[in-house]
Design a protein that fits this description.
CATH superfamily of the largest domain: Ribosomal protein L4/L1
Number of domains: 2
Shape: elongated
Distance between the termini: 20 Å
Largest sheet: 6 strands, mixed
CATH class of the largest domain: Alpha Beta
Oligomer: single chain
Structural class: alpha/beta
Number of helices: 7
Helix content: 25-40%
Strand content: 5-15%
Mean pLDDT: 92
Number of strands: 6
């Protein structure tokens, strides 16, 4: 497929770029997308949750009432989960939620996500993006030129650019990543994907090797 290449201000350069059908026009695999997104979200979890169980509660070990004659059930410890302030039964413990996925499956998931973006016409290719200073208003002007100021955008740069990244950081709907750190979740979460011309060739190298 071919897309027009735009300037940073949204004007047409008059050129077109050819996008690989092996990345932007495959048969999408929804299950691969599900697994890759599931892994991404699982890896974001700290897993530091903890609740004290019966043996970790600070409290007296004295028998709280006599065994018989009270008309109620036997009770041997104030730390019992049955009482207020007692330990929790099978409470959460610190754990690692991350799991492994094969490289080929992750590539398939990302190609599937890129295919969906291409089908939805939610893909924009720019000649280049660069700012002289790190100012939020620079990025707002940039989005206004592309008519994307009211949408969630994901800008993919061929390499890290400090000014572009810092200019976008205060905008809740704007995200800037490099080709090396692109992932399926962020691709699908964005309303519109903006690729720099230099990112396309790097993306093809990354996903077709």
């Amino acid at each position: 497929m071919e897309l027009a290449v735009l300037k940073q201000n949204g004007e047409d350069t008059g050129r077109k770029i050819s996008l690989s059908d092996d990345i932007f026009a495959i048969e999408p695999n929804d299950h691969a997308i599900y697994l890759d997104v599931k892994q991404y979200l699982a890896n974001q979890r700290q897993g530091t949750h903890k609740a004290k169980e019966r043996n970790e509660i600070a409290g007296s070990t004295k028998k709280i009432k006599k065994q018989k004659g009270t008309g109620g059930a036997r009770a041997g410890s104030i730390k019992s989960p049955l009482f207020k302030g007692g330990g929790r039964v099978f409470g959460p413990r610190p754990r690692d939620y991350s799991f492994k996925l094969n490289k080929k499956l992750k590539q398939l998931a990302r190609k599937s996500a890129l295919t969906y973006k291409a089908k939805e016409n939610s893909l924009t290719v720019l000649e280049n993006v660069s700012f002289e200073t790190s100012k939020t208003k620079n990025y707002i002007t940039f989005l206004n030129g592309l008519s994307l100021s009211d949408k969630k955008t994901l800008l993919v740069l061929p390499e890290n650019d400090k000014h572009v990244y810092l200019s976008s950081r205060n905008l809740p709907k704007a995200k800037v990543v490099t080709v090396d750190s692109i992932n399926t979740y962020e691709l699908l979460n964005a309303d519109n994907l903006v690729l720099c011309e230099g990112s396309v060739s790097k993306l093809e190298t990354l996903l077709l090797k």
